[in-house]
UniProtKB/TrEMBL annotation, chains A, B:
<dbReference type="InterPro" id="IPR036390">
    <property type="entry name" value="WH_DNA-bd_sf"/>
</dbReference>
<dbReference type="InterPro" id="IPR036388">
    <property type="entry name" value="WH-like_DNA-bd_sf"/>
</dbReference>
<dbReference type="Pfam" id="PF00155">
    <property type="entry name" value="Aminotran_1_2"/>
</dbReference>
<dbReference type="Pfam" id="PF00392">
    <property type="entry name" value="GntR"/>
</dbReference>
<keyword id="KW-0808">Transferase</keyword>
<keyword id="KW-0663">Pyridoxal phosphate</keyword>
<keyword id="KW-0238">DNA-binding</keyword>
<protein>
    <submittedName>
        <fullName>Histidinol-phosphate aminotransferase</fullName>
        <ecNumber>2.6.1.9</ecNumber>
    </submittedName>
</protein>
<dbReference type="GO" id="GO:0003677">
    <property type="term" value="F:DNA binding"/>
</dbReference>
<dbReference type="InterPro" id="IPR015422">
    <property type="entry name" value="PyrdxlP-dep_Trfase_small"/>
</dbReference>
<dbReference type="GO" id="GO:0003700">
    <property type="term" value="F:DNA-binding transcription factor activity"/>
</dbReference>
<comment type="similarity">
    <text>In the C-terminal section; belongs to the class-I pyridoxal-phosphate-dependent aminotransferase family.</text>
</comment>
<dbReference type="InterPro" id="IPR015424">
    <property type="entry name" value="PyrdxlP-dep_Trfase"/>
</dbReference>
<keyword id="KW-0805">Transcription regulation</keyword>
<keyword id="KW-0032">Aminotransferase</keyword>
<dbReference type="InterPro" id="IPR051446">
    <property type="entry name" value="HTH_trans_reg/aminotransferase"/>
</dbReference>
<dbReference type="GO" id="GO:0004400">
    <property type="term" value="F:histidinol-phosphate transaminase activity"/>
</dbReference>
């Protein structure tokens, strides 16, 4: 039996013991040596099994003590299955469905499980306004003049300082500011692809990535993506010879909430470096971790300058500010030239507001609160879904970010369900929009970045009832 | 002799009489009938000659009286020659030169004849700041939320109202907001071209247009452009079969300051409609007219929806705000989808500030002052150049905008002159950057959108001396 299958087999055994509550929350697991002898395999295989379980948040290690069943492992519902790579070439667009979801956003009475940004109630709007007033007073020529094409030096310096997870590898000169992370991704694609090239992306994937790739005439390969560990590297290896660029969300992907283990990130960067394929790393959720440390980006492992690391404050501070950035590695000069040709430069104002917010520790403080709120919300949502959705519902287990991914009974079409829900003023994002293929029709994405209050809880229960009624 | 050459021949005779002061300022010209008999040609030919002279501001008509030598015709220097279509395929880029010019902008001690935007002293910064403070107070969710992809409805409504020159043909729904006019042009090009397509542009032309076209992998055809009447339609007709899109500045082009006569605009739109070639009309200087009325854009004549009319406030109010728009005709839906894919949406704040500025008559008031200042400046500049530059200098005769185009002695290389001038803290834009070909090396663009004061006058004289020394 192949080694990689062995470790998964052992992990599955332990996983079942946890779900059947043979192993209860807080229970200590047998030691690695004990399990090695029991299964008659190498120490390494057991370590890999534990890594797998850890990546699913089922177990956690305690220093100098061993491994324990995690507090978050008490889950009634299974995680969604990993999709097979669809060979169907049918590329029906889901534009209409996306437009429908976006159109609903203007109705403030709708409970917006559908939206991709945190509710304004979770944002530090008063503090941002204070910063805005300060910046307006101090801005050179009141912001009426052009700033340097590369973007506000002040913002770039603060973003570089804030990227402590990279251990000082990047300086302000390595960054270019952009109009949100989406604009960073667009600029990266413009820099490294031409019409007819092939892009490899996760599946399910944020629909904006599909839209921009289609818009630019790229061929899209959707890769199977694990709900907890992210994109399947084995699947990528099989198609790498026809891939011109990859675009992945390594940390708390949208919509799955998956987190690539460090080992996978390292391996991915090595693979892409070997094949000279650039990686656009969309890391805009990286600061919304539920664990103890900010996960590393793939950029950390990048020595050849092939990783273009994109970020923004759109998911944490102020979506409407349109402030993002990219550390484009060896493509920096090209990105700057392009930015000048596309738009000359950006407005300075909001860049300076964000720089100020980062510089004075306000971002750090705000993120601690936001993470705590999001984590608590994720537990509220999971409990409510467990209690009020059908028993065969599968649910993702995000370790950060603000999304849950639900896989419902095969008979349910969430595009149809959407119309019923919206009539009851409940919005969600149907699974079909997260792929170019005809799949995920029984899935939905829920945003838990809302204020958890009676109305929201009630609407989540009503959504569960709607699903039950559709069976 | 072909009819079109006949009318030019007659126009030239009259032009020479004006320059030799045989006909003095204010003199009445012979009647059309008298000239018809004298030259033994049709009435129409004489009318065309007068149109030509009028377009050069050499003569002006007075109602019910006839034609007179114009007050602005007292010029010692000739207007620059119209370039021939260069057949050389040598496309040396002028990137380094452009970078040099841009780098100099950070040095505030340099007299910036080089820059493409009005000096901050000409902008209503205090009033804009007042508007900003008001908007900040009233913005929904303090601007932290996404606005509709199409852009601020408030701004679009006010831009539509302001476009009185279109006689109500456009409504707010016809506009999409963009990050400045450059971003509008980029979006239009993305919507209607693919790599390898051919774009026809003016020559000389704003270098940003060359950069974005090269960046997108387009073939560029530079068309001969008349210093006063704009792009040569006969030259366009000869290549129209291989053109996929046109991008022209119909009103007060950068750098020539040319203004297409209404008749040419109409003919252009008819030609492009017949061949189904979209026109990107960059009309960001249209409000800076020195005459009595705002010239019409080509969009006025557009019945098939092929004209994509681009504008902004970057040359009149606040370059750094990055607020522009496009009325994209039949390409509107595509432009909106693209904008969403490229950047989701724009920040609302500055759009609302501009909308407010337009709505309350402040723009109208400011433009009246700005036009008056620019026109006076243009006369100061022309006089100073006439007195302090070599006699064989040729100079454009802009009827709006903020640029003069100078053609110097053939022996002068303005790229070399640039280095000498910048050492003396004088900046200008060398002719070479306004073309993809190896031409205009003896030309320069001067921005007269500065505060006319002793230092500026002195530096302009010193620049003239530098030119003389280089002979």
């Amino acid at each position: 039996m192949a080694k990689e299958i062995l470790y998964l087999k052992i992990a599955n055994i332990i996983e079942e013991q946890i779900f059947s509550e043979t192993l209860k929350i807080g229970d200590k697991l047998p030691s690695i040596r004990a399990l090695q002898k029991l299964h008659d395999v190498s120490l390494n295989t057991i370590k890999q099994s534990f890594l797998e379980l850890e990546s699913k948040s089922l177990i956690e290690s305690r220093p100098k003590s061993g491994f324990y069943v995690s507090k978050t492992s008490n889950r009634k519902l299974l995680i969604p299955s990993m999709n097979k790579l669809k060979l169907s070439e049918q590329k029906t667009t889901s534009e209409d469905l996306i437009t429908k979801v976006f159109d609903s956003l203007s109705d403030k009475d709708i409970t917006r499980f559908s939206i991709g940004v945190p509710d304004p109630s979770l944002l530090p709007i008063a503090k941002l306004n204070k910063g805005l007033a300060k910046v307006v007073r101090n801005l050179a020529e009141s912001g009426t003049s052009y700033e340097p094409v590369q973007g506000s030096a002040n913002l770039r310096r603060n973003v570089a300082k804030w990227a402590i997870v990279l251990e000082g590898k990047l300086t302000e000169d390595d960054f270019v500011t952009t109009s949100g992370a989406m604009n960073a991704i667009f600029n990266c694609l413009m820099a490294v692809t031409k019409r007819g090239d092939t892009i490899a992306i996760e599946s399910p994937v944020y629909f904006g990535i599909i839209q921009v790739a289609q818009n630019m005439g790229l061929n899209i390969i959707e890769l199977p993506t694990h709900p907890t560990t992210g994109v399947d590297l084995e699947a990528l290896k099989k198609v790498i010879h026809k891939v011109d660029v990859c675009c992945f969300m390594s940390n708390f992907s949208n919509p799955l909430g998956s987190l690539m283990p460090d080992q996978n990130k390292k391996e991915l960067v090595e693979l892409l470096t070997y094949h000279n394929v650039p990686l656009i790393e969309d890391d805009l959720y990286g600061n919304l971790f539920f664990g103890t440390v900010r996960p590393k980006p793939c950029k950390y492992y990048d020595e050849a300058g092939i990783v273009m690391w994109c970020g923004s404050v759109s998911k944490t501070l102020a979506p409407g500010y349109r402030v993002g950035w990219v550390a484009p590695g060896k493509f920096k000069d090209k990105i700057i030239r392009q930015k000048m040709a596309h738009t000359v430069c950006m407005p300075s104002l909001y860049q300076e507001v964000i720089a100020d917010f980062l510089e004075h520790g306000r971002y750090d403080h705000h993120l601690r609160n936001l993470r705590s709120t999001l984590y608590t919300n994720s537990l509220h949502f999971q409990r409510t879904i467990e209690d009020h959705f059908p028993e065969n519902t599968k649910i993702s287990q995000p370790q950060g970010g603000s999304f849950l991914w639900l896989e419902l009974d095969k008979s349910i079409d969430t595009a149809v369900l959407y119309d019923k829900a919206i009539q009851q003023k409940i919005g969600f994002a149907p699974g079909r929009i997260f792929t170019q293929h005809d799949q995920y029709n029984n899935c939905m994405r829920l945003n838990f970045g809302l204020e958890w209050k009676e109305k929201v809880e009630l609407d989540l229960k009503r959504l569960g009832q709607l699903v039950k009624n559709s069976l």
